[in-house]
Design goal:
about 475 residues, Immunoglobulin-like, 15 strands
Length: about 475
């Protein structure tokens, strides 16, 4: 009885260990070299494992973990040839490949690959037919031949689309259905827009159907070549670029993805990378939100200490200078070494200039700011609060005098003030305003709320014109 119990217990232990591991055996016509097991991540192949090919052409990839589902690729020795296959729930897979005819690569131990291989073979056949008709169309000598080959091309293309839709319809839970849904273009609205409301309705239809067939609760779609590009297009082109809209949408998708670790990890990493250095002013609020709601609460355990530190440091540099929020007050010294506070500047708009008299770019841009000021800003109650970012007072005063910047509120920060702030663990003006280069220009409204930041003189002038024109209506 004890022997039987021990045997059963040993069998259960083996099954559990097997369930927590993977093994991919590759038999090819190579007799040496290193082969790689990789997965698709957008246009890249990320390495999961490597194995030496022995003299019999065998390479074995194995590990004590579960590989996430998705499209994988074998990279053969020499890194010139690759071949795709699927990894799903079945993690013990055998591959037999002749690199002279990779389309016929045999994959056993995985039922998902039966459909995948059938699909690849069908696509290869239809691809040849489509190319033949395309070439024949280009070489057509008359309208009749052109029409014939155009018709044949459409017929073959329709057959390919019907084949794909058939898999989605008949095998909706298969990995192939997930992959094909990720490949599909969202349906375009058929209504011809006759007015503005029609255009809005068409946009809303397209946006609401953009993710049809794709679940953010399924890890598989992450490891495809299609999802990253689709995600990028959605947030850069389909979504309104207002931070509040993107934050609401991102939170919802991350909530859906919480039950799918790979999707959640990929999505949060992508959003963080996208908005840590945003393409549009004001979108750094998205990154700060992601930090406060996810990163700062320990919901990114996959990041190492250095990555977490970099994200934290960047978030704290941005928290105090988000567009729409009140600017931090500054109490610095003027040229007479008297305190001149930013909030004491009484103006409809205040231009904040952070600059260094020894910076070559500042020497060009600061006088341009003054030219705008004298030409139009001054008459409209716009004032300038200019901060020297470094510690060369003599050069600073010399530049102010030689460029006649005395109508500005010119202020500076001493090394003693910096030491006091450091001792008291108070943020410096460089942290409060994210000063990483000079010159850096901000625009504040009457209540000292940040209207715009990191602007060129021309952009700042244009923004002021828009704001003043809007206020006058």
């Amino acid at each position: 009885m004890k022997k039987i119990f021990f045997t059963l217990f040993a069998a259960l232990i083996y099954q559990f260990a097997a369930a927590q591991s993977y093994k991919v055996s590759l038999q090819s016509n190579f007799k040496s070299g290193i082969a790689y097991l990789t997965h698709h991540a957008g246009s890249n192949l990320n390495v999961d494992d490597s194995a030496a090919v022995n003299s019999n052409g065998l390479a074995v990839f194995q590990g004590k973990r579960i590989l996430p589902t998705g499209i994988y690729a074998i990279v053969f020795p020499g890194k010139r040839m690759t071949s795709d296959f699927l990894i799903g729930k079945e993690q013990f897979i055998s591959i037999k490949a002749d690199t002279a005819n990779l389309i016929k690569m045999e994959v056993t131990g995985s039922t998902e690959n039966i459909l995948f291989q059938q699909y690849q073979q069908y696509v290869a056949k239809q691809g040849r037919l489509l190319n033949q008709e395309r070439e024949a169309y280009n070489q057509s000598g008359n309208a009749q031949d052109s029409a014939l080959h155009e018709s044949n091309y459409k017929k073959h293309n329709a057959a390919l689309n019907d084949y794909r839709n058939g898999i989605i319809l008949n095998k909706p839970t298969s990995m192939m259905a997930i992959i094909l849904n990720a490949m599909k273009e969202p349906p375009y609205p058929t209504r011809v827009p006759l007015n503005r409301q029609d255009s809005i309705d068409n946009y809303q239809y397209y946006k609401s159907h953009y993710w049809d067939g794709i679940s953010f609760m399924d890890d598989c779609v992450v490891r495809t070549p299609f999802f990253p590009a689709k995600l990028q297009r959605y947030y850069r082109e389909v979504m309104p670029q207002e931070p509040d809209s993107i934050i609401k949408d991102a939170d919802y998708k991350l909530l859906l993805a919480r039950s799918s670790p790979e999707m959640y990890k990929y999505l949060l990493n992508w959003l963080t990378d996208e908005y840590i250095s945003p393409k549009y002013m004001g979108q750094d609020a998205i990154f700060v939100h992601l930090f406060e709601k996810y990163h700062s609460k320990g919901l990114t355990p996959w990041l190492n200490e250095k990555q977490t530190e970099a994200i934290t440091r960047r978030a704290y540099m941005l928290m105090a200078n988000l567009v729409g929020e009140k600017a931090a007050n500054l109490e610095l010294l003027n040229t007479d070494d008297k305190v001149a506070a930013l909030y004491d500047v009484n103006a409809d708009y205040t231009v904040l200039v952070f600059w260094d008299p020894n910076c070559g770019h500042c020497k060009e841009e600061v006088p341009r700011v003054d030219s705008f000021y004298r030409a139009s800003w001054k008459a409209k109650n716009v004032k300038i609060y200019a901060v020297m970012t470094e510690y060369d007072k003599d050069e600073w005063v010399k530049f102010i005098n030689s460029n006649n910047l005395k109508e500005w509120t010119n202020v500076y920060h001493t090394l003693e003030m910096l030491k006091e702030e450091t001792t008291a663990q108070k943020p410096s003006f460089k942290q409060l305003y994210d000063i990483t280069q000079t010159p850096t220009l901000y625009l504040l409204d009457k209540e000292k709320r940040i209207v715009g930041k990191k602007l060129t003189p021309d952009q700042l002038n244009d923004l002021l014109k828009v704001k003043m024109n809007t206020a006058s209506k």
